[in-house]
Amino acid sequence: MASEAEKTFQRFAVFGESSSSGTEMNNKNFSKLCKDCGIMDGKAVTSTDVDIVFSKVKAKNARTITFSEFQEAMKELGQKRFKGKNPDEALQAVFELMEGKDPATTGVTKATTVGGVDRLTDTSKYTGTHKERFDESGKGKGIAGREEVTDNTGYVSGYKDAGTYDKKK
After folding, report:
1. Where are the domains of the chain?
2. Which of 73, 99, 110, 133 has an alpha carbon within 20 to 30 A of 139's alpha carbon?
3. Where, subcellularly, is it found (predicted)?
4. Residue 4 and residue 33: Cα distance in Å, rounded?
């Protein structure tokens, strides 16, 4: 059975990485875990510390870390974050911060419909030729709402007697 810390590790490992099996974590998600779980506090542990520790524990040309390498990293960060505790106590404290945590999606960009956007997309306020491209409900008329529909009769635009070729004058 995976420990709480290992479960959290897996949840963060697969976050935003559809191909991840949850056994290895990349630097981006490692930083996210450190941030979301409060291990990175911006004082004792900064994003730079997190990056350095990540680089230190991963295999030489690997781009990800395994859970055991992750534990090594957490031991290091734990000692920075919880000064004065021995490595194992610090690791325990870090794992307690991680317990039951999910990758936060708060603060993730959502589509905005701030006043400005509403105003720009309200077809009832359109004027001039733009206005004619929408019906009363504000639904676009598509190609029919455009003036410049190509005339494929073969006559030059502006020719007055179009369609009179066969008629005798």
Report:
1. 4-98, 114-150
2. 110
3. Cytoplasm
4. 14
Q: Which residues contact 34 (CB under 8 A, 6 or more apart)?
A: 40, 45, 50, 77
Determine contact, residues 71/91, Cβ cutoff 8 Å: yes
Residues in a beta bridge with 134:
140
Low-confidence ranges of the chain (pLDDT < 70): 1-2, 106-121, 130, 136-138, 142-158, 163, 168-169
Position 10 scores a pLDDT of 92
pTM flag (> 0.70): no
Q: Please give the Cα distance from 56 to 112 (Å, whole number).
A: 40
Determine the topology of domain 4-98 in CATH: Recoverin; domain 1 (1.10.238)
Question: Tokens in use for 8?
Answer: 């959290």
Tokens of 47: 């994003």
